[in-house]
Write a sequence for this structure.
């Protein structure tokens, strides 16, 4: 049984966007931060959306000290754009980094983040994260209706059982940035993930 190895990325009272994955990959568990696999396109997508090339590594030939410094750059970027990263799964059994092998799952207390922030948008990174989020919500007693759009899906809560979680919040199911999602090119990912920019007006 594995426990989620690290906390959500820094959250503050003005945080607006919560990006949820499933569970950290082997690379992320080893390096201590989100989306650390060199072929995962998450940081490249965010870098392109916000015109910031400093947040993704162009070379994997760096030592631990350099990588820790790079994590500081990523955290500062997230805070400056009011973005919080976390994962849905708290504990599980998993084979390597394979989402399909996840079993005996328990969930993080996702909605606890709403108590100390202004989160209005949830982005689910991939199909597995979407399925897990639906299960998490079902365990709390409410249902999500899915609507399909050209580049992404939206999930609409049909009940509001948590004061900070209202039907006005925006929940997007986005294509996974994982290298396993090979059918999506970087341009295709950008077309979907640019929905994040709506938050900034």
């Amino acid at each position: 049984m594995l426990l989620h190895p690290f906390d959500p990325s820094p959250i503050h009272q003005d945080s607006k966007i919560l990006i949820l994955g499933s569970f950290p990959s082997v690379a992320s568990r080893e390096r201590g931060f989100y989306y650390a696999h060199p072929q995962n396109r998450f940081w490249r997508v965010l870098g392109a959306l916000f015109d910031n090339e400093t947040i993704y590594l162009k070379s994997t030939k760096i030592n631990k000290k350099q990588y820790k410094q790079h994590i500081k750059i990523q955290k500062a970027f997230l805070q400056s754009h009011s973005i919080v990263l976390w994962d849905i799964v708290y504990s599980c059994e998993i084979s390597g980094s394979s989402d399909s092998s996840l079993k005996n799952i328990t969930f993080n207390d996702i909605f606890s983040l709403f108590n100390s922030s202004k989160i209005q948008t949830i982005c689910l990174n991939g199909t597995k994260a979407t399925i897990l989020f639906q299960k998490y919500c079902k365990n709390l007693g409410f249902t999500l209706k899915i609507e399909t759009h050209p580049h992404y899906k939206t999930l609409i809560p049909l009940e509001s059982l948590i004061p900070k979680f209202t039907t006005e919040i925006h929940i997007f199911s986005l294509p996974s940035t994982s290298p396993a999602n090979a059918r999506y090119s970087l341009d295709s990912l950008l077309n979907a993930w640019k929905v994040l920019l709506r938050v900034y007006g």
Summary: The radius of gyration is 16 Å. Helices lie at 26-31, 42-49, 64-80, 127-139, 186-193.
